[in-house]
Amino acid sequence: MYFLLVYMYIKNHVYMFPDLLGCHGKCRRYLFCCFQDRAGQFFSSGHTNNWAVLVCTSRFWFNYRHVANTLSVYRSVKRLGIPDSHIVLMLADDMACNHRNPKPATVFSHKNMELNVYGDDVEVDYRGYEVTVENFLRILTGRLPPSTPRSKRLLSDDRSNILIYLTGHGGNGFLKFQDSEEISNVELADAFEQMWQKRRYNELLFIIDTCQGASMYERFYSPNLMALASSQVGEDSLSHQPDLAIGVHLMDRYTFYLLEFLEDIHPASKTNMNDLFKVCPKSQCVSTPGHRTDLFLRDPGSVLITDFFGSVRKVELTMETINLTDPIDAESGELQKEMHTYADQLPVSEIIHQKPKQKDWHPPDGFILGLWTLILLVFFQTYGVKHLKHIF
Amino acid sequence: MAAPLTLLLLVAVTVRAALFRSSLSELISERVEVVSPLTAWKRVIEGLALLDLGVSPYSGDVFHETPLTIYLFHFLVDYAEVTFMVSVAGSSVVVTYLILFQFRKQKFALEADRYPLDCLELIRSPKEMYYIPLKVAMFYLLNPFTILSCVAKSTCGLNNAIIALFILSTIKGNVLLSAIFLSLATYQSIYPLTLCAPALLYLMQRQYIPVNFRRASFWWFIVQYAFMYLGSLFVIICLSFFLLGSWDYLPSVYGFILSVPDLTPNIGLFWYFFAEMFEHFRLFFLCVFQINVFFYTIPLSIKLKEHPVFLIFMQLAVISIFKSYPTVGDISLYMAFLPVWSHLHRFLRNIFLVSCVLLACSALFPVLWHLWIYAGSANSNFYYAITLLFNVAQILLVSDYFYAFLRREHHLTYGLYLKRKDGSEATLVLK
Fold first, then answer.
1. How confident is the model over A279-333, as pLDDT tens digits?
2. Domain spans of chain A, in order of start
3. Does B174 touch chain A (CB under 8 A)?
4. How many domains does chain B have?
5. Is CATH 2.40.50.140 the right assignment for the domain spanning A49-309?
6. A361 and B74 in contact by Cβ < 8 A?
7. How crowded is residue B366: how many other Cβ atoms within 10 Å of its Cβ?
8. Residue B410 falls inside a structural domain
């Protein structure tokens, strides 16, 4: 018997497989003990699915570049295999359909309009005023109201690798959402801790492209977090070149060079995180990008870019038959015939058949008596009988 | 006098009945110029319905009528239209008769020799005065404002009737009835309190008590009148307490009138100002606005102490303009009295302007309301501008009549054609 080890790139069929991979955890362990050395490399990352949460927190036309940043990363992760169902895209403003956009339905990331990152198939999950701190934290922790659709949820599990990308305007310890509220680094760290305790991620890569972005990952304390930021505390992240036809800056420097870097990645690339840390040195970025790996259990050199940015699924074809153990006896479902009765809470029949007697209000008798006595008194006082002839 | 009056009444009743039966009655009863939160018929029905359900009608900010009105309408709610028509007809009849009595009293022949010779043309002759009561009745009955107010079944008609009865009893010299009707009028809305002063002045004049602060008889009369007035007011308030068994009509009626919580637009000045008022200034400006109504009583009564009837007219006008929830029904009351002073027309200076502005504003009210509320192309400033203009025109009218009245008095004392010391013609300037 021989095994055919095949790397299969499942672009759009991921939803068929989760069940398969989940219940074959047992299977995996069988294969592992048989082929430990090759399997070690095979299952080194420990994740089975990839998610991405891409957030642009800025409103208004002059923050075009933040939307372009987010959409560039969106485009990259989609190209590398993460499907829309596993991407939560939050854009606080609509640049493509903005009145001031001279090229409607497009968002460009490079001047001379080389790359339209809006494309034909962008799926924005949270738009406009829905991009709030509360919604962001609810997505991360999973505490959404039951009516929230699946596309707006982060349905990750303990075998998910999540990429979180934030961009916008920030400061030392906070990130501004839509010009009206802020999220602090403490809140973010606590949210990640909640995710860890609820087993909502396997490994998490956090990228932030704002001014003083490194302050946002200072407070992380949960395991398996790796963070990258475009600037240190006290530095501003700067934008790349403006486009004179559109009239605004199109991208931020860090994300621009990140995009350039990601354009060279394809699903089979072996580039690892150490290369990512070298993206946008100070000479190109003006600010100093930072990263944090102390909470990450693996060595960053062994982490592939595609572990976070792509959805590389490892599937193994086997010709060997495996005997599954006997199925557990299904409980003979005896229908418990208990009589369900409703307690009569609204006695409808009584209401229908009995009209309540309409009680009219009447002024009290004392009042009527008193009033008319007074009126008569006054009348006789003024028109006393003996005076009548003088009046008329 | 009776026959033309009856004819006039018939015409007025026909007009109102026709309007009651037409589809315009709902339209009119919702117009904010005609009904206010105090006087709307819808609210009366609401209050009565609440009462039938066993709840106090003053719960919730719906009903702001006095308990005696509840008592009245409890039995007359099915005949509401007739009630209002009767009240309007009644008040017009009352007003007619009071003018008649007033004129009968006017002993102008005795006073003719007091005046300089060239002033005879200023004094009215019986012939011109003969038709004035009829004109007053006509002004009241056929005034479009009164018709609108009656068709809308606004309780303003009742208030007007009580005030008319009060003026009648004052003119006839009946101190007790005057005090009782005044207390009823004050009980309905607080502002007729200011009519105490002209009533006192008139009654004192009638009883030949000189208006002199040092005289004991002056103060004694004031004490008598005040006792009767306050006593009847007290009795009425206690009676209202017994009607419903609770005191919660006091904040609902009087608290509502004085503190103006409801800022529905109307033709008055309060709503816009208080809509944009900051909370910590509200009390101050409330006091300022309310004092404005009561403020003119003392100066006017000092100036017009020999002419209390004109003072009544002026005071009614001031109340109608400056009260917290004015409607066109209040305006029609004092406008009904204008023919009484038709002899002043030669001294009126702004009559053309005032009449044009009043007509234009009355026409513009519904237009700008529609533009503001329904079309959305105007805003409250437009409507408020017309309100302001309307009130300015009314103030101008009233002050014009005041000027004309004073000027006539001046001419009666000093002659019609004034000459300076050196014999050249002089002009009169109002300072």
1. 888 888 888 898 999 988 888 888 888 888 888 776 778 888 878 887 665 554 4
2. 49-309
3. yes
4. 1
5. no
6. yes
7. 13
8. no
